[in-house]
Amino acid sequence: MEYSPYFDPLLETLSREEITALQLQRLRSTVEHCMHSPFYAERLKQCGVSADSIKSLDDLKRIPFTTKQDLRNTYPFGIASVKPEECVRLHSSSGTTGNPTVILHTQKDLNEWAAAVARCLWMVGLRPYDVFQNSSGYGMFTGGLGFQYGAEKMGMLTVPAAAGNTKRQIKFMTDFGTTAVHAIPSYATRLYEVMEEQGIDPRTDTRLHTLIIGAEPHSEEQRRRIEEMLGVKAYNSFGMSEMCGPGVAFECREQNGLHIWEDYYIVEIVDPETLRPVPDGEVGELVLTTLNREAMPLLRYRTRDLTRILPGECPCGRHHKRLDRMKGRSDDMMILKGVNIFPIQIETILLQFEELTSNYLITLETRESNDEMTVEVELGQLFTDDYGRLQELTREITRRLKDEILVTPRVKLLPKGSLPQSEGKAVRVKDIRKHF
Ligand code: ADP
Ligand code: ZN
Questions:
Q1: Could you give the CA distance from residue 180 to residue 145 in angstroms, rounded to a whole number?
Q2: How far is the CA of 27 from the centre of ligand 2 (A)?
């Protein structure tokens, strides 16, 4: 059977003019609907914006940003635009500091979220005859239910394996003929390690051809490794609970930037310090306005994720803008000896050494009143225990890291399996500096 390359041809191939017109119309109705939110009714009154006063997309800038703190301050239901009894689902973030945040969904929200995820899965070439296994935690983490409903809507046979129990996960893959897996990138690597231990070759012993990787920052090197190890194509998936979850932005088969669905969101990239827009192509903080949410629309939400809009058009035929892979969150940035460093810069260098695995940990600590960085990384299985060769390798890694991040880290090469493995998002940085 022949299938169209688009899940939703009409919306996926809108021209720029059509996107702008649709966004304007949806922005007006979103602002109108936000009058039902106690928080936004007050906000919009203060800044004097009403649906009627929005004449162009530029008028969006008259509305102040919404922050995670606003979500916390209005916990649990104060920002919602409908009453909780009109909703059918609630997701909540962990909230390690202060109040957690709550995201409410009506049935319509869930249907549209599923449609967005289905569109993404179709875009990377998955079709109803594929078998889709999801290794995300189910529950509050939106990577579980988000992919589940999207993959079902697309018509695939789904295997809601959930997180952990890697041996069972692999057994499902071989027994059920899984062709596509959704996994956090660090877990994709773990899957391969366990397959290796069990003497399973993913290329010949499974039918896997596609991996969806996301939920945490990862480098291009990391993606290529996952592709090579598992013999698959791996596509970057970006989302966050505040914007429903997965399905916000996704790579197409070109693997060159993530299309962000502009019929669902208005995208802005701003300088996180000055909050002014940065020109297309420059890195800044991603700010999103939802255009189709019923329970909890968000206006100009500061995601804290740093990225840029890639210039030019994508050959796939979709005009929805493309985001570059995320550099990390503004709060992932480490400042060491006055230099700003992102973990992803370190990962990019480490993975250029084929002797190293992608399991690494960055520790920041104070020694004799100096702040220092230690980078621990695991060696691949087949690597030598020749001391001289290891020293030489350590020196070379240190040199390359220093070139990239401008400070000299202490590099420690560890045997495979030494660093802690997490079932969820990988913990890459441990900051135990003393702040005087
Ligand atoms: P939490 O806020 O507890 O981490 P979420 O599941 O809502 O829970 O996480 C969303 C965040 O995860 C995003 O804001 C972003 O920082 C990160 N993230 C999600 N997908 C990607 C991706 N493909 N690349 C980089 N970071 C990602
Ligand atoms: Zn494309």
A1: 16
A2: 25
